[in-house]
Amino acid sequence: MRPKGGVELKRALDIAGGLAGLVLLSPLLLALAIAVRLESPGPSLHWSRRVGQRNRIFAMPKFRTMRTGAPDVATHLLSDPQEWVTRLGRFLRRSSLDELPQLWSVLKGDMSLVGPRPALFNQDDLVTLRTEAGVDALRPGLTGWAQINGRDELPVGEKARLDREYLDQMSMALDLRILAATALSAFSGRDVTH
Predict the structure, then answer these.
(1) Given Cys at both, which of 31, 85, 101, 132 links 61, Cβ 3.0 to 4.6 Å?
(2) Closest C-alpha to 144, from 172, 175, 121
(3) Euclidean distance between CA atoms 74 and 180, whole angstroms
Protein backbone atom coordinates (compact mmCIF):
# COMPACT_ATOMS: atom_id res chain seq x y z
CA MET A 1 0.00 0.00 0.00
CA ARG A 2 1.13 3.55 -0.66
CA PRO A 3 2.37 5.88 2.11
CA LYS A 4 -0.40 7.95 3.68
CA GLY A 5 1.05 11.25 2.40
CA GLY A 6 0.86 10.01 -1.21
CA VAL A 7 -2.76 8.95 -0.77
CA GLU A 8 -3.65 12.33 0.75
CA LEU A 9 -1.91 14.20 -2.09
CA LYS A 10 -3.73 12.06 -4.68
CA ARG A 11 -7.07 12.83 -2.99
CA ALA A 12 -6.29 16.57 -2.83
CA LEU A 13 -5.52 16.56 -6.57
CA ASP A 14 -8.72 14.61 -7.24
CA ILE A 15 -10.76 17.24 -5.39
CA ALA A 16 -9.02 20.12 -7.18
CA GLY A 17 -9.27 18.41 -10.58
CA GLY A 18 -12.89 17.34 -10.11
CA LEU A 19 -13.99 20.80 -9.00
CA ALA A 20 -12.02 22.61 -11.72
CA GLY A 21 -13.34 20.22 -14.36
CA LEU A 22 -16.97 20.67 -13.31
CA VAL A 23 -16.66 24.47 -13.22
CA LEU A 24 -14.69 24.88 -16.45
CA LEU A 25 -16.72 22.32 -18.38
CA SER A 26 -20.14 23.38 -17.07
CA PRO A 27 -21.23 25.01 -20.38
CA LEU A 28 -20.27 21.84 -22.29
CA LEU A 29 -21.95 19.61 -19.68
CA LEU A 30 -25.16 21.62 -19.96
CA ALA A 31 -25.09 21.55 -23.78
CA LEU A 32 -24.53 17.77 -23.82
CA ALA A 33 -27.31 17.19 -21.28
CA ILE A 34 -29.73 19.14 -23.48
CA ALA A 35 -28.57 17.33 -26.64
CA VAL A 36 -29.11 13.90 -25.03
CA ARG A 37 -32.64 14.89 -23.94
CA LEU A 38 -33.49 16.26 -27.40
CA GLU A 39 -32.26 13.18 -29.27
CA SER A 40 -34.23 10.50 -27.44
CA PRO A 41 -36.79 10.27 -24.63
CA GLY A 42 -35.43 9.73 -21.14
CA PRO A 43 -33.08 11.42 -18.68
CA SER A 44 -29.77 12.99 -19.71
CA LEU A 45 -27.84 11.00 -17.13
CA HIS A 46 -27.71 7.26 -16.60
CA TRP A 47 -26.76 6.25 -13.06
CA SER A 48 -24.89 2.97 -13.36
CA ARG A 49 -24.31 0.63 -10.41
CA ARG A 50 -20.54 0.20 -10.21
CA VAL A 51 -18.04 -1.52 -7.98
CA GLY A 52 -15.92 0.91 -6.02
CA GLN A 53 -13.10 0.77 -3.50
CA ARG A 54 -13.22 -2.40 -1.36
CA ASN A 55 -15.95 -3.69 -3.72
CA ARG A 56 -18.55 -1.24 -2.39
CA ILE A 57 -21.37 -0.55 -4.88
CA PHE A 58 -21.94 3.10 -5.80
CA ALA A 59 -24.01 5.00 -8.37
CA MET A 60 -21.86 6.44 -11.18
CA PRO A 61 -23.28 9.06 -13.57
CA LYS A 62 -22.70 9.00 -17.32
CA PHE A 63 -24.43 10.83 -20.12
CA ARG A 64 -27.02 8.40 -21.43
CA THR A 65 -25.79 6.86 -24.68
CA MET A 66 -28.43 4.16 -25.05
CA ARG A 67 -32.16 4.17 -25.49
CA THR A 68 -34.12 3.80 -22.27
CA GLY A 69 -34.88 0.18 -21.47
CA ALA A 70 -31.46 -1.11 -22.56
CA PRO A 71 -30.26 -4.13 -20.51
CA ASP A 72 -27.97 -3.17 -17.60
CA VAL A 73 -24.94 -5.19 -18.74
CA ALA A 74 -21.56 -4.39 -20.25
CA THR A 75 -22.06 -3.29 -23.85
CA HIS A 76 -19.92 -6.14 -25.24
CA LEU A 77 -22.38 -8.63 -23.70
CA LEU A 78 -25.31 -7.33 -25.78
CA SER A 79 -26.10 -9.42 -28.84
CA ASP A 80 -26.46 -6.26 -30.96
CA PRO A 81 -25.12 -3.15 -29.17
CA GLN A 82 -25.91 -0.89 -32.13
CA GLU A 83 -29.59 -1.68 -31.63
CA TRP A 84 -29.46 0.17 -28.28
CA VAL A 85 -26.81 2.89 -28.74
CA THR A 86 -28.18 6.22 -29.99
CA ARG A 87 -26.53 8.17 -32.81
CA LEU A 88 -25.37 10.86 -30.37
CA GLY A 89 -24.37 8.07 -27.98
CA ARG A 90 -21.90 6.65 -30.52
CA PHE A 91 -20.21 10.06 -30.73
CA LEU A 92 -20.21 10.52 -26.95
CA ARG A 93 -18.63 7.10 -26.44
CA ARG A 94 -16.03 7.51 -29.19
CA SER A 95 -14.96 10.88 -27.73
CA SER A 96 -15.40 9.74 -24.08
CA LEU A 97 -17.58 12.79 -23.44
CA ASP A 98 -20.17 10.47 -21.87
CA GLU A 99 -17.73 10.03 -18.96
CA LEU A 100 -17.54 13.73 -17.97
CA PRO A 101 -20.32 13.58 -15.33
CA GLN A 102 -18.04 11.22 -13.40
CA LEU A 103 -16.14 14.33 -12.30
CA TRP A 104 -18.95 14.52 -9.71
CA SER A 105 -18.01 11.03 -8.46
CA VAL A 106 -14.36 12.13 -8.26
CA LEU A 107 -15.30 15.21 -6.23
CA LYS A 108 -17.57 13.13 -3.98
CA GLY A 109 -14.82 10.57 -3.29
CA ASP A 110 -16.34 7.51 -4.97
CA MET A 111 -13.74 7.77 -7.74
CA SER A 112 -10.30 9.17 -8.48
CA LEU A 113 -9.08 10.92 -11.61
CA VAL A 114 -6.81 7.90 -12.25
CA GLY A 115 -7.39 4.31 -11.18
CA PRO A 116 -8.93 1.12 -12.54
CA ARG A 117 -12.17 1.81 -14.43
CA PRO A 118 -15.13 0.86 -12.21
CA ALA A 119 -16.61 -2.51 -13.10
CA LEU A 120 -20.36 -2.94 -13.48
CA PHE A 121 -22.01 -4.50 -10.44
CA ASN A 122 -22.53 -7.74 -12.42
CA GLN A 123 -19.03 -8.10 -13.92
CA ASP A 124 -18.16 -10.83 -11.42
CA ASP A 125 -15.19 -12.15 -13.43
CA LEU A 126 -13.41 -8.78 -13.46
CA VAL A 127 -14.27 -8.01 -9.82
CA THR A 128 -12.93 -11.42 -8.72
CA LEU A 129 -9.65 -11.03 -10.62
CA ARG A 130 -9.13 -7.50 -9.30
CA THR A 131 -9.85 -8.59 -5.73
CA GLU A 132 -7.38 -11.47 -6.02
CA ALA A 133 -4.78 -8.97 -7.31
CA GLY A 134 -5.45 -6.49 -4.45
CA VAL A 135 -6.71 -3.85 -6.89
CA ASP A 136 -9.96 -3.46 -4.91
CA ALA A 137 -7.91 -1.35 -2.46
CA LEU A 138 -7.90 1.48 -5.02
CA ARG A 139 -10.60 4.01 -5.80
CA PRO A 140 -11.78 3.41 -9.36
CA GLY A 141 -10.72 6.05 -11.86
CA LEU A 142 -12.15 8.30 -14.51
CA THR A 143 -9.31 6.85 -16.56
CA GLY A 144 -6.60 4.31 -15.90
CA TRP A 145 -3.57 2.36 -17.05
CA ALA A 146 -5.70 -0.32 -18.72
CA GLN A 147 -7.73 2.40 -20.46
CA ILE A 148 -4.72 3.79 -22.27
CA ASN A 149 -3.41 0.32 -23.07
CA GLY A 150 -6.36 -1.06 -24.98
CA ARG A 151 -9.66 0.21 -23.56
CA ASP A 152 -12.61 -1.87 -24.89
CA GLU A 153 -10.30 -4.24 -26.75
CA LEU A 154 -8.75 -5.85 -23.67
CA PRO A 155 -9.85 -9.23 -22.30
CA VAL A 156 -10.85 -9.25 -18.62
CA GLY A 157 -7.66 -11.00 -17.46
CA GLU A 158 -5.47 -8.42 -19.20
CA LYS A 159 -7.43 -5.54 -17.64
CA ALA A 160 -6.88 -7.02 -14.17
CA ARG A 161 -3.16 -7.54 -14.91
CA LEU A 162 -2.75 -3.92 -16.04
CA ASP A 163 -4.70 -2.68 -13.01
CA ARG A 164 -2.27 -4.56 -10.75
CA GLU A 165 0.65 -3.11 -12.70
CA TYR A 166 -0.77 0.37 -11.99
CA LEU A 167 -1.11 -0.45 -8.28
CA ASP A 168 2.54 -1.55 -8.15
CA GLN A 169 3.84 1.53 -10.01
CA MET A 170 1.47 4.23 -8.72
CA SER A 171 2.96 7.72 -8.70
CA MET A 172 1.95 11.27 -9.50
CA ALA A 173 4.14 11.17 -12.63
CA LEU A 174 2.35 8.04 -13.86
CA ASP A 175 -1.06 9.61 -13.16
CA LEU A 176 -0.13 12.70 -15.19
CA ARG A 177 1.10 10.47 -18.04
CA ILE A 178 -2.18 8.53 -18.00
CA LEU A 179 -4.27 11.74 -17.99
CA ALA A 180 -2.31 13.11 -20.97
CA ALA A 181 -2.63 9.84 -22.90
CA THR A 182 -6.36 9.71 -22.12
CA ALA A 183 -6.89 13.18 -23.56
CA LEU A 184 -5.12 12.15 -26.79
CA SER A 185 -7.09 8.90 -26.99
CA ALA A 186 -10.42 10.68 -26.40
CA PHE A 187 -9.78 13.06 -29.28
CA SER A 188 -8.90 10.21 -31.62
CA GLY A 189 -11.66 7.81 -30.47
CA ARG A 190 -9.05 5.02 -30.53
CA ASP A 191 -9.95 1.56 -29.14
CA VAL A 192 -13.69 2.21 -28.67
CA THR A 193 -15.67 -0.63 -30.21
CA HIS A 194 -19.25 0.40 -29.28
Answers:
(1) 101
(2) 175
(3) 26
**Residue 30 belongs to some domain of the structure:** yes
Q: Which domain holds residue 9?
A: 4-188
Residue 65 · residue 93 · CB < 8 Å: yes
DSSP string, 51-118: E-GGG-EEEEEEE--B-TT--SS-GGGSS-GGGTB-HHHHHHHHHTGGGTTHHHHHHHTS-EEESSPP
CA nearest neighbour of 147 among 120, 113, 101, 105: 113
List pLDDT tens digits, range 171-183: 999 999 999 998 8
Residue 172 included in any domain: yes
State the pTM of this model: 0.85
Angle at CA of residue 169, ends 18 and 182, nearest 5°: 45
Residues of the chain with pLDDT under 50: 1, 191-194
- Please write the tens of the pLDDT for every residue from 116-125: 999 999 999 9
Dist. CA 105–CA 45, nearest whole Å = 13
The closest of 95, 42, 88 to 65, measured between CA atoms, is: 88
Give the count of domains, the chain. Answer: 1
Backbone angles phi, psi at 86, to 5 degrees: -80, 165
Q: Alpha-carbon Rg of the chain, whole angstroms?
A: 16
In a domain, 42, yes or no: yes
Say which DSSP state 110 is in.
S
